Amino acid sequence: MTSGKVCVRNKEKTSEWPGLFLNDLKTKKESLIFVKRMIAVAVSSITYLRGIFPEYAYRSRYLADMCIKVLHENGNTPGASKVVKWLMGSFDALEKQYLQVISIGVYTDPENPNCIIEAYQFNFRYTEKGPEMDILRNKNVEMQVTLENTKQASVLLIRKLFLLMQNLDALPNKVYLTMKLYYYDDITPADYQPPGFKEGVYDHLWFEGMPVHFKVGEVHTSYHALRVQVSVEQSQVEKLQRRDYLKESKPVSVDEEKKASSKKIDTKRDFPSDDESAQFKKPARPLQKRKAATKTLVTKKRRV
């Protein structure tokens, strides 16, 4: 199994949005279900396209022209089942609106889990006012976010994630996964931990080499906003650029990153933007959250 494998869509299958997501996002409950499914789709796509779990750990779903592999909830693969349990635990924090960041790291040394070779970060924002606050601002122009906006942004995010994952080099034969949760400390009870997690300490993550950060995309609903970022080693990016998979882009400043949550997604761009910075970025507002302890998982890559 390699990182470049592709799930080919069966032309006889219909590419329906309701096959993956709800067809209405007017209520807070519907929005929450949508965000959960987006996370499940993204994490499943990452683990599938990076060759972390075997083919039988997934089931196929279809969206637009894409065949999407989603992890089975009750599969017979221990590693995949553990990741599903992690996600279910994180959803408890998401439901309570405590969750700010899900951080998934890939590393090779079981004695040094904070030294990672890839990272996937999911950032969350919430609003209680629903559609009244459901506005994106782009170049001083305000526009109401519709279901169609959410659909387009979701498909674009998944497509960008696919393109990036399919064009990275294969992972080593033996890798480990870790998941850490970061909370909004101003509202999260001091003794709260979601199922499957325990209290952790705020420590640093660092890369084996120079990391490059990709802002894959951002999706808004009336009650939630989800932003996805991928970090890989710089040599991966150099290979992508040589193959003309990436367009040149300027490094993203801290101020620009803070403003990113209010920007409308540019549907004309085909690939994620890259932010070449010297250090691995911590989640925003590190002093206002704490994290759940690291959970580790040993996995072996299978080769065809």
TrEMBL record:
Keywords: Chromosome, Meiosis, Nucleus. It is found in: Chromosome; Nucleus. It comes from the Eukaryota. Residues 248-272 have a biased composition (Basic and acidic residues). GO terms for biological process: meiotic cell cycle. It comes from Oryzias javanicus. GO terms for cellular component: chromosome; nucleus. This is HORMA domain-containing protein. Pfam families: HORMA (PF02301). SUPFAM superfamilies: The spindle assembly checkpoint protein mad2 (SSF56019). The keyword Iron does not apply. Residues 29-230 form the HORMA domain. The keyword Nucleus applies. Residues 282-304 have a biased composition (Basic residues). Residues 248-304 are annotated as: Disordered.
